[in-house]
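Issue 218. Parser rejects a valid record. Input:
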Amino acid sequence: MPSKKRKRAHNQAMQRYAKQRQRNLLATPGAHDFIVVMDSLKAGFNIPKILRSAEVFGAHEVHLINIGPFDPAAAKGAFKNVPARFFDEFSECHANLQERGYTIFALEAGTANLLADIELPVKSAFVFGHEEFGLSFDPDDYPDIQGLSIPQFGNIESLNVSVAASIVMYEYVRSR
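Output the parser choked on:
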């Protein structure tokens, strides 16, 4: 019986996703010019949380690369409010951001450029990779992308991706 319940819950989540993705077509850019790029994150847990923070901090839009359907319920309506662009490959997203004049930052633990020490351009795009596998691309193939890290003082190597994204968005807004 639990599998029937699970299947029903999954179907309901996919219906919510389809409905919210359709509503997303009417979303308008937020108050700020930053873009959040979610690069091959696992569909589900972190994506709705990042969308929620993007809405709260006034993101211009979010880019989702190689991310399938997810349950938008945890986003508390943010998926219909923050414009989302979907890409199959990072190269497509990169070309779009370059064409629009964005400075691109890839968040990577241990990078010399610390978030607290850098002046973020108005048109900033922040790339967050998969928590286990990292970025879907080789940063050496994109020399224009700047590495960026959040100062950390504990023994754990990195923050949860949704927490890291929220910190970066907050710092961007705070610096304005």
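Fixed in the parser; the record now loads. The two ends are 53 Å apart (CA to CA).
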